[in-house]
């Protein structure tokens, strides 16, 4: 059984979902894949994983790096889980490219190369945004691209973490966002 709760953030309402094992989803209202894997039989509740997630978000949105991770129940394909585990290793306030992650996976697997496009697909389908920090992944050309919650939110989160985003290009409203994936 999944339980849900809403969290009011500086970026608007966030829907949280968890089961007995841990957090299963964290979605910004109206994001691209909003509640995609939410169990239709879910109900409102406040299990320990949701309480811990709210505590983590309180610390995070206060501008501090959380020193703990709420319990996570990561649901996805083996490849997605491999990508998301790499995302969990990206330090607070730092960024990597989709290509960096592809190279790391290729190296881990002992193969010559891995598709940055495939990595982008996995990053984009991350169900636990912010905590699994997909906002820390940027385009090879320095663009803040590819965030299901919206580039404006990605920009906010990176600034909140103190990331040096002066080197990145930020698409303006109405500008088509070119994806490197």
From TrEMBL:
- Protein's UniProt name: Methylated-DNA--protein-cysteine methyltransferase
Would you identify the family this protein belongs to, as annotated? Answer: Belongs to the MGMT family.
This protein's superkingdom? Answer: Bacteria
Q: Where in the cell is it found?
A: Cytoplasm
Q: Which Pfam families match?
A: DNA_binding_1 (PF01035), Methyltransf_1N (PF02870)
Taxonomic lineage = Bacteria, Pseudomonadati, Pseudomonadota, Betaproteobacteria, Burkholderiales
Q: What else is known?
A: This enzyme catalyzes only one turnover and therefore is not strictly catalytic. According to one definition, an enzyme is a biocatalyst that acts repeatedly and over many reaction cycles.
| UniProt keywords, alphabetically | Cytoplasm, DNA damage, DNA repair, Methyltransferase, Transferase
Give the organism, scientific name. Turicimonas muris
């Amino acid at each position: 059984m999944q339980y849900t709760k809403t969290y009011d953030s500086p970026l608007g309402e966030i829907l949280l979902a968890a089961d007995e094992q841990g957090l299963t989803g964290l979605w910004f209202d109206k994001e691209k894949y909003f509640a995609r894997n939410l169990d239709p039989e879910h109900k409102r509740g406040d299990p320990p994983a949701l309480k811990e997630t709210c505590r983590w978000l309180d610390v995070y949105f206060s501008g501090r790096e959380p020193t703990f991770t709420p319990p996570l129940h990561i649901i996805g394909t083996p490849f997605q889980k491999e990508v998301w585990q790499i995302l969990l290793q990206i330090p607070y306030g730092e960024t990597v490219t989709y290509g960096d992650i592809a190279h790391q996976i290729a190296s881990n697997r002992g193969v010559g190369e891995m598709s940055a496009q495939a990595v982008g697909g996995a990053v984009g389908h991350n169900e636990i945004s912010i905590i699994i920090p997909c906002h820390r992944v940027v385009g090879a050309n320095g663009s803040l691209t590819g965030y299901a919650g919206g580039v404006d939110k990605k920009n906010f989160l990176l600034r909140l973490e103190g990331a040096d985003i002066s080197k990145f290009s930020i698409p303006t409203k109405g500008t088509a966002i070119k994806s490197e994936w």
